[in-house]
Amino acid sequence: MMIFIQSLDYQLWNIITNGPEIPTEIFDGKRVLKLNNEYNDHDYKLLQFNAKDKHVLFCALSPSEFNGVSSLDAAKEILVHDYELFTMLENENISSMYAPFNDIINALKGLGKVYTNHELVSKILRWLPKSWEPK
């Protein structure tokens, strides 16, 4: 995913890793949000990059995943949300479940969000369906 987004525009990947840049200005020594009517061309370009970023990530999601994350503001939040809600399907085996899980973990690692092995194993054990309890 990282290479795909960087190939579209490297600035898009920077926005995912660093968060969106919202147009601000210094007023009385404090940083405050600009009003819409105060935006310049650079501000609009920053806002457009964040919108493109969200669009690329939304297009990669299934309709049910899209409904769950469409209200999130930053691209990084989308990936964390995917990680938190990831589950193993009843008819799925561990090998087929691990590939999409690993994709999410690698994307988050690229964003600076690193989980310990203990956290990852605990998460996987919680995701196992009830049919795995006797095992």
From TrEMBL:
<protein>
    <submittedName>
        <fullName>UBN2 domain-containing protein</fullName>
    </submittedName>
</protein>
<dbReference type="Pfam" id="PF14223">
    <property type="entry name" value="Retrotran_gag_2"/>
</dbReference>
